């Protein structure tokens, strides 16, 4: 059974940085597409960033492009999200997601329904 555990959330001032991490266990990590989504109070869960099984291709939501970076360490079974130049509108609970998709460099990476497993979420609050 795949388990995802996020960490690294917290309170930060606008313009600051945070790094979120997601620890993966229970399966062959290198075959999974990994992603980050977020959900702000009263809003739907939205796509933030995704990374293919190999780490060779990444995708970002327009709202975070140029500020956030997703990367993975297949040796440590982790995926991380480096968030820079944070804005108050980045405030949300951030979720790690996984999809079994070996050798898949496309797919519906932006659609939360496409993913098989989810973490419990880690809250991020950006103060103005």
Gist of the model:
The protein is an all-beta fold.
Structure description:
With 128 residues, this protein is mainly β. The chain is 0% helix and 49% strand. The protein contains no helices and eleven strands. The chain has strands spanning 3-7, 10-13, 18-25, 32-39, 46-51, 58-60, 68-73, 78-83, 92-100, 117-118, 122-127. Strands 2, 4, 5, 6, 9, 10 and 11 form a seven-stranded mixed β-sheet that branches. A hairpin with a 6-residue loop joins β5 and β6.
Topology (elements, then pairings):
Layout: E1 3-7, E2 10-13, E3 18-25, E4 32-39, E5 46-51, E6 58-60, E7 68-73, E8 78-83, E9 92-100, E10 117-118, E11 122-127
Parallel strand pairs: 2-11
Antiparallel strand pairs: 1-3, 3-8, 4-5, 4-9, 5-6, 7-8, 9-10, 9-11
Determine the structural class based on helices, strands and strand pairing: mainly beta
The low-confidence parts are none
Q: What's the N-to-C terminus distance?
A: 40 Å
Work out the helicity level. Answer: under 10%
Anisotropy-based shape: globular
Backbone CA Rg: 14 Å
Give the total of beta strands. Answer: 11
